[in-house]
Amino acid sequence: MINRKKFIKQSVLAAGAVMAGPAVAEAAEYMSPQKLTILHTNDTHSRMEPFPMDGGRNQGLGGVAARAELIKQIRAVESQVLLLDAGDIFQGTPYFNIYKGEPEIKAMSAMEYDACTIGNHDFDAGMENLATQLSNHANFPMLVSNYDFTGTPMENKTAPYKIFKKGKLKIGVLGVSIEGHGLIPDNLFGTTKYLDPVQKANETAALLKKDKNCDMIICLSHLGARYKDDKVSDEILAKESENIDLIIGGHTHTFFDKPLTYKNKKGSDVIVNQVGWAGIVLGRLDFEFSKFSGKKILGNKNISVSQKTGG
């Protein structure tokens, strides 16, 4: 027969095992790596339908239906996905000439974009039109930290940043765009104040990192990949940044074979990517976040958008 002392000891051990079970499981879940998939476009330029089958090099490519199907397929597999755009949603096909951006914004809303930034061509039908399209049809924010729209129709229509919760991750996304004067007609740019994009990006990223405790900071940029002169670009922004982890670029219509990596002012890596124009490529970047090794990129894909790839 079991004695009283042994019985008490065994009971305590059994109770401890029962109590420890959830704690161990919770600890394992806490320490397990977290994955994030980032999908992105830029300079889609009102390309609602694929390029016509006319023998051109882009024939059959692009179109929102194929892009939407690709996004749907990826979301069915990956649990944590961010869908982002780096500006110039408008201008380039008769859809914009006739409907002034309504179908483009509706399509992005239907695809459940998480955020975009503003491009110079998004002013092409005027700020009042852009404000109307966003107010009436967008279920995603337009992010730009270096434009001051005070006193214009776009006042209070944009935000400098937004934080997204993806599983246990906090992802801060901010936006910057190009100097409008000399690029955008004065009657369209109006009294918009252009602020230094590097300064504003660094200020916003510091807020997201230090005050908001974001696990990753993404900058949506319509500055352009790089220039021969000292004009501010994604390359310059990356090198002059301190807390930005990833720059999703636009404006220069550059097709990157793979993301570029720069060292920032602290010596840390900043990844830059851009996927051309017209929505003929969907960019994909997969990241892993670990309590032991921090964040790292697992892989990247430039996915050709066509009826074939989009199902």
Largest sheet: 6 strands, mixed
The fraction of residues in strands falls at: 15-25%
Low-confidence segments, ≥5 residues, pLDDT <50? 24-28
CATH class of the largest domain: Alpha Beta
Widest sheet: strand order? Answer: 5-6-8-9-11-10
Structural class: alpha/beta
The third-level CATH topology of the largest domain is: Purple Acid Phosphatase, chain A, domain 2
Structure description:
- The chain has 311 residues and is an alpha/beta fold.
- It folds into two domains: 1-32; 35-304, Metallo-dependent phosphatases (Purple Acid Phosphatase, chain A, domain 2, 4-Layer Sandwich), CATH 3.60.21.
- It contains eight helices and 13 strands.
- It has a six-stranded mixed beta sheet, covered by helices on one side. Strands 3-2-1-12-13 form a five-stranded mixed beta sheet, with helices on one face. A two-stranded antiparallel ribbon has the order 4-7.
- The protein is globular and about 90 Å long.
How would you sum up this structure in a few lines?
About 30% of the residues lie in helices and about 25% in strands.
